[in-house]
Amino acid sequence: MDRKNDISQIHYESDKFLVPFLLICPELQFLGTEKRGTTVYFKFTPYDKTQEAINSYFNRTAPLVHAKDLFDSTERFRNEIYKTLKLPIEEG
Hints:
20% strand
């Protein structure tokens, strides 16, 4: 089976502070979103690299990122939620 499509290799995340960070991690692949009830989950692969990135985030050992990259990623996070929930995307 292709590892990238193996469900055990997918990490689901909904934390509004963590997701923008994961979106800019070059070693991770963003697979899209999934809505469960009222929560939007962001899917990342590979699972083990995602766990390493999460640990480095909480341990404050993650590589520093440019502020503009993080702001752009936060905007992408918001737009993905709006798209998943089928809400109009407002610019700004």
